[in-house]
């Protein structure tokens, strides 16, 4: 698309361009999937990237229209549910020192779809826990957490602050307690805080790529998940935390399910997103008492045992109370 059509502003001698990013989530085979474009399609990188494109105000009346157009062009996917996440614009996310290219502010979006089985072009689905393996607690505390993350972060917390490190209201050890639950409770919603801590400690590949001084303090870097181009893993972390939190007060989980589903399928989808296991009977009681679903009169014979009742989302619930979500309490092994 011609540069003249893009939203470009010059500030302090630097051109600022407005971009659009989409973290597109689906669930299949009890695994949350994220749609990524092939390396080099959107960013000059060997790493996976989220669908991305510049905002073109003459071609797109709104940011969301522009986002949908870029996703359709790059992946062939028509988006359903979309919500804006955050604007990402830290220095260094695109330009390097001496680079004369535009600095890009990117408006990130979370999108949910049931389309994990659709035919795609120039893109593919990838498990989001491949990028954040420490976030999946369904089989207990992840081994990578115990083996690599916890001891290295404890070591980092004892080190002296670096000259380029910003002042923080909390000590490093206190931030580890809040973010990772080291010495405290683990909050599944704090996905971004955990990624930011790993980046600041120099333990993820993006920190070394960006020349962070903390990364140079380690003799060897562990493989903490699959890296992503630019700051796309930060955008994905923001989307994961937003979705996990939103499960509790908005019925967004039904955007990831077929029109008819069993209660077990609903539970497994919630567990996949939250990264934790839930008590079966407590979950069913919560769903039924909350008026979130209603029976369809049909049954599923794909459960391997006795036929299971099929349910559908009861849309009237959004008019009956202000926060119709699944206020489940995550359990930890």
Can you walk through the features of this model?
Helix content is 28%, strand content 20%. It is an alpha+beta fold and 333 residues long. Strands 1, 2, 3, 4, 5, 6 and 7 form a seven-stranded mixed sheet that branches. A two-stranded antiparallel ribbon has the order 8-9. α2 (143-158) runs antiparallel to α3 (172-180). The longest helix is centred in the middle third of the chain and has 16 residues, at 143-158. The chain is globular. Residues 1-5 have low confidence and may be disordered.
Helical stretch count?
A: 9
Instruction: Write down the overall geometry.
Output: globular
* Structural class by sheet pairing and helices: alpha+beta
How much is the radius of gyration in Å? 21 Å
- Helix content bin: 25-40%
Distance between the termini: 51 Å
Order of helices and strands: EEEEHEEEHHHHHHHEEH
- The overall pLDDT, averaged over residues, is 85
What share of the residues does DSSP label as strand, in percent?
15-25%
- Sheet with most strands: 7 strands, mixed
Count of DSSP strands = 9
Uncertain segments are: 1-5
Compact summary:
With 333 residues, the chain is α+β, with helices and mostly antiparallel strands. Helices cover 28% and strands 20% of the residues.
């Amino acid at each position: 698309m011609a540069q003249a059509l893009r939203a470009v502003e010059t500030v302090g001698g630097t051109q600022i361009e407005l971009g659009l990013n989409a973290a597109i989530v689906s669930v299949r085979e009890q695994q949350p999937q994220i749609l990524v474009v092939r390396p080099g399609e959107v960013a000059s990188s060997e790493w996976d990237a989220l669908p991305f494109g510049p905002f073109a105000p003459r071609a797109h009346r709104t940011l969301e229209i522009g986002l949908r157009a870029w996703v359709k062009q790059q992946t062939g996917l028509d988006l359903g549910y979309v919500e804006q996440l955050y604007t990402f614009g830290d220095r260094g996310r695109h330009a390097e020192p001496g680079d004369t290219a535009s600095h890009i502010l990117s408006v990130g979006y979370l999108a949910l779809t049931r389309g994990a089985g659709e035919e795609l072009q120039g893109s593919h689905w990838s498990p989001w826990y491949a990028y954040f393996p420490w976030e999946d607690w369904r089989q207990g505390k992840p081994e990578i957490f115990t083996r690599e993350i916890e001891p290295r972060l404890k070591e980092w917390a004892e080190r002296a602050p670096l000259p380029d490190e910003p002042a923080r209201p909390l000590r490093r050890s206190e931030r580890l307690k809040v973010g990772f639950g080291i010495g405290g409770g683990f909050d599944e919603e704090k996905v971004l805080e955990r990624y930011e801590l790993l980046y600041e400690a120099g333990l993820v590949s993006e920190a070394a790529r960006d020349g962070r001084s903390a990364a140079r303090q380690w003799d060897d870097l562990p493989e903490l998940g699959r890296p992503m181009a630019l700051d796309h893993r930060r955008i994905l972390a923001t989307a994961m935390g937003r979705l996990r939190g939103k499960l509790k007060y908005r019925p967004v989980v039904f955007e990831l399910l077929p029109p008819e589903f069993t209660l077990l399928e609903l539970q497994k989808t919630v567990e996949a997103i939250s990264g934790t296991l839930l008590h079966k009977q407590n979950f069913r009681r919560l769903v039924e008492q909350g008026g979130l679903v209603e029976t369809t009169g049909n049954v599923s014979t794909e459960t391997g045992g006795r036929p299971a009742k099929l349910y559908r989302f009861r849309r009237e619930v959004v008019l009956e109370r202000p926060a119709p979500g699944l206020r489940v309490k995550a359990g930890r092994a």
